[in-house]
Write a structure and sequence with these properties.
Elements (H helix, E strand, L loop, with lengths): L8 H15 L31 H11 L6 H21 L5 H7 L2 H11 L9 H12 L10 H13 L9 H23 L6 H15 L5 H19 L1 H8 L19 H12 L5 H20 L3 H16 L3 H9 L4 H14 L9 H12 L1 H4 L3
């Protein structure tokens, strides 16, 4: 028989509850609920092997990345702490987990944001300098900058290249400016030398493309600064085997990459741009001159196997670079370039004919004359 609902539900419920309590004397309903307050999550990096050695640096980093109000003093402390932490970890061999820590708390991204916030019309603090130092140390931590190098370097270059020309800076800023440039160059060398062998060519290509873009700027100061950094990179390129072997000591990475294993698809474009600036009448000429020498060393180290040929070509190249003729320089390099690289040199010259950043239009015209004199060599891809 179907059970009918009680006529007085409330009374029935109370009676049922009473009967349950009598059957289960140990079960008591709470008279009131305890209210608990959620405590803010405290970041803990004590799992890092380096934490005991550099607790203060780690805590300073965590305090900065979690703070909503970042004063100038906090920014400087943050950057110095990154340098201290990475340097100490490398020194003591306690880098385990450091790449995860850097990624988890977005240290590289925070540095990039700080650089992008810096004013471009004056140099008032050493934040740029400290950022370069921090990035240099971060680059030595495995995978800490993986996939981020180009965007970080773009932020570095922009924060410095767009500053007023050196002659327009207050004298009080000149020492800091030079210190910042030196730290940038040191950082750039270290970043390149820290790339794994499998990524060296691709990463170098990306950085050089970035710098070549800056050489197209209408401001001479920007072009000069970019060309000086290209000079730094080509010198690293020419000495790559020795420097890479030195950089890898103690890191447990593979052996050095020889210059012959480095592929630069933009070599022709780079060479063409360097020739244009080498024979121009501006400050970039000096940096382009040195960069061409370094690039020449890279080419004959990587492409000429016979030592006698290397010595001969070095003598010829030196003579051509010291001459006042862009034609001689182009012809000398052209003998050792691949066909598509020679074509790229000419394409750069054509592009430069309407380029405001090339002050002496006679130089690209001279390069075009070389191609027209021997089109089978220069215009065949």
């Amino acid at each position: 028989m179907e059970r009918r609902p009680p006529a007085c539900p409330r009374q029935a419920w109370m009676e049922d509850s009473s009967s349950q309590e009598s059957r289960s004397p140990g079960l008591q309903l709470p008279s009131s609920y305890e209210v608990t307050t959620m405590q803010p999550l405290k970041l803990d990096a004590s799992w890092l092997p380096i934490y005991k050695e550099e607790q203060e640096a780690v805590d300073s980093i965590l305090a900065f990345v979690t703070s909503s109000n970042k004063e100038e003093r906090d920014k400087a402390t943050f950057l110095r702490s990154i340098s201290v932490l990475c340097r100490s970890a490398l020194k003591h061999g306690l880098t385990q987990g450091l790449d995860l820590f850097c990624d988890m708390y977005q240290l590289a991204e925070n540095i990039k944001a700080l650089l992008e916030e810096e004013p471009r019309d004056h140099l008032c603090t050493d934040l740029r300098h400290l950022s370069m130092l921090a990035l240099e140390k971060l680059s030595l931590v495995d995978t800490a900058l993986e996939g981020k190098a180009k965007s970080l370097l773009r932020a570095c270059f922009s924060s410095v290249f767009w500053l007023p020309a050196e002659k327009e800076m207050p004298k009080a800023d000149l020492a800091l400016y030079m210190k910042t440039l030196n730290s940038m160059d040191s950082m750039l060398r270290t970043v390149v030398l820290s790339f794994p062998a499998s990524r060296v060519s691709k990463e170098l290509q990306g950085i050089l493309e970035l710098l070549l873009d800056f050489t197209r700027c209408e401001r001479e100061a920007v072009r000069e600064r970019a060309m000086a950094r290209i000079d730094v990179l080509t010198r690293v390129l020419s000495d790559y085997s020795t420097l890479q072997a030195h950089a890898n000591v103690g890191r447990g990475t593979a052996g050095p990459v020889c210059s012959g294993e480095i592929q630069l698809p933009l070599l022709g474009k780079l060479l063409g741009r360097l020739i244009l600036f080498r024979f121009s009448e501006e400050q970039t000429s000096c940096a382009a001159f040195h960069a061409l020498f370094a690039l020449a060393e890279f080419i004959f180290e990587s492409r000429l196997k016979d030592r006698a040929d290397q010595v001969h070509w070095e003598a010829v190249t030196t003579s051509a670079l010291c001459s006042l003729s862009a034609r001689d320089c182009a012809k000398t390099f052209g003998k050792y370039l691949q066909s598509h690289e020679r074509t790229d040199v000419i394409l750069v010259a054509i592009e430069a004919m309407g380029d405001a950043s090339i002050l002496d239009q006679q130089v690209p015209s001279s390069l075009l004359d070389v191609a027209l004199e021997d089109p089978d060599v220069w215009l065949t891809d």
